[in-house]
Design a protein that fits this description.
Strand order of the largest sheet: 1-2-8-5-3
Structural class: alpha+beta
Largest sheet: 5 strands, mixed
Order of helices and strands: HEEHEHHHHEHHHHHHHHHEEEEHHEE
Organism: Pseudonocardia bannensis
Low-confidence stretches: 1-6
CATH class of the domain at 78-303 and 365-416: Mainly Alpha
CATH topology of the domain at 78-303 and 365-416: Cytochrome p450
Helix content: 40-55%
Strand content: 5-15%
CATH superfamily of the domain at 78-303 and 365-416: Cytochrome P450
Number of strands: 10
Protein name: Cytochrome P450
Family: Belongs to the cytochrome P450 family.
Mean pLDDT: 93
Pfam family, one: p450
Shape: globular
Number of helices: 17
Keywords: Heme, Iron, Metal-binding, Monooxygenase, Oxidoreductase
CATH architecture of the domain at 78-303 and 365-416: Orthogonal Bundle
Distance between the termini: 51 Å
Length: about 425
């Protein structure tokens, strides 16, 4: 693995090069790590990996001593090949930090203008629209008796909802949803040259579309979320200074608005159907569904790790990590830490403290879309349990995950039911 980071571990910190940061479900390894080496250095990542809840929580909630700006070229593990960068450059694509990569006044400004549409009071009125999207897609497959539930429902709903919030015309929805590619591998994985080229071509077209949406919003801001962001920036006298950021936000909003929900919900369906008594429980008692959503977020997070940079020396589980170090918080491990969650590896829709998960991060960088994600997941479970209570996994299938550190869930989940 090639990396832009090269510093070695401090004395006394164990190596963890037997850890595969791109493995889809490394829960057995992480359970051992929490007991035996809760902090370890991964040479390929050039980073310290934190596996315990308390350590990860500190990183995400700290008000100082941690930077969201992780490294040169942001998230990338490898230096892009010249041909990939040429494709992006010729398309006019200019990388810019997203909200999750900003600190201080810049972060406060951009969060203040992007966050209003995601507040809980603004999200609740979307329930009818979301439910209609779910029911229409279930209507289309109910008589079939089997489906890839990710492709048929779990990807489609969050993507449609965020594009609706952005004011994207119906005739553009299919085109924008087509901007699917190995971008997560490019940003958070170990991409080969072909993946880099494929991603560059996709991002070039996606970026051109996003810049067009942003430019139209600047010229004539509507009542959609991008138009609202433009109005707020203009009111604050910051539109010109934030023009490049606005292009980036328009693009990143599409990805952040549905990829994480899709990955988590896909993993959640697998967790439920691999534990059929849990599936039956929410079918028989729909009042369990809101807590089942929290348990899915805990047990099957679609954001397995996140990365930050330390600005101060800090001790984590007995290891003194020096200032300047890159740290990866293994959220998929912290969310199962037995010091916080009894029998944390077990999936339990009745778990009393399921909502203590760290899936949405914490502090000033708490995920803005958390209320939207929970609403979408709740409605999907309500309709699935009502319409297809006999849902089960197709036996013998192998689940495949995108090989990257930070955005992954089962890419396909084959399910079946009695179509009668």
């Amino acid at each position: 693995m090639s990396t832009l980071e090269s510093a070695g571990p401090v004395v006394g910190c164990p190596l963890g090069d037997d850890f595969d940061p791109f493995e889809g479900a490394p829960h057995a390894f992480l359970a051992r790590a929490r007991r035996e080496r809760p902090v370890f250095f991964h040479t390929g990542l050039g980073a310290y990996v934190l596996t315990r809840y308390a350590d990860c929580q500190w990183v995400h909630s700290a008000t100082e001593g941690v930077s969201a700006q992780p490294a040169l070229l942001s998230h990338l593990n490898v230096t892009p090949i010249p041909e990939a960068m040429r494709i992006l450059d010729e398309s006019g694509f200019v990388p810019a930090p997203s909200i999750v990569d900003e600190d201080g006044a810049e972060h406060r400004l951009h969060r203040s203008v992007a966050h209003p549409p995601f507040r809980v009071g603004r999200i609740r009125p979307l329930e009818q629209f979301i439910r209609r999207q779910v029911t229409e897609r279930l209507d289309a497959i109910a008589g079939e008796g089997s489906a890839d539930i990710v492709d048929a429902l779990i990807y489609e709903v969050p993507a449609t909802v965020i594009l609706h919030m952005m004011g994207v015309p119906d005739e553009q929805m299919g085109m924008v949803k087509g901007f699917r590619g190995p971008w997560a591998i490019f940003i958070w994985g170990n991409p080969d040259e072909q993946v880099q080229l494929d991603t560059a071509r996709m991002m070039a077209a996606f970026g051109q579309w996003a810049r067009g949406i942003a430019a139209r919003a600047v010229a004539n801001p509507g009542d959609d979320m991008i138009g609202e962001t433009v109005k707020l920036l203009r009111e604050k006298g910051e539109l010109e200074n934030s023009r490049l950021w606005l292009d980036s936000w328009t693009l990143n909003a599409v990805m952040a608005g549905h990829e994480t929900t899709t990955n988590t919900m896909a993993g959640g369906i697998v967790s439920l159907l691999e534990n059929p008594e849990q599936w039956r429980a929410i079918c028989e008692d729909p009042e369990l569904i809101p807590n089942a959503v929290e348990e899915i977020l805990r047990h099957a997070t679609g954001v397995p790790t996140w990365r930050k940079r330390l600005l101060v020396d800090k001790e984590f589980s007995g290891v003194r990590v020096p200032a300047g170090s890159l740290v990866y918080t293994a959220l998929n491990s912290a969310n199962r830490d037995e010091d916080v969650f009894d029998d944390g590896e077990t999936f339990d829709v009745r778990r009393p403290n399921a909502n203590r998960h760290l899936t949405f991060g914490g502090g000033v960088h708490t995920c803005m879309g958390n209320h939207l994600a929970k609403l979408e997941m709740r409605i999907m479970l309500e309709e699935l349990t009502n319409r297809l209570p006999g849902l089960e996994l197709v036996p013998g299938q192998t689940l495949h995950y995108s090989p990257n550190t930070t955005q992954r869930g089962p890419e396909s989940v084959q399910v079946r039911w009695d179509a009668r």
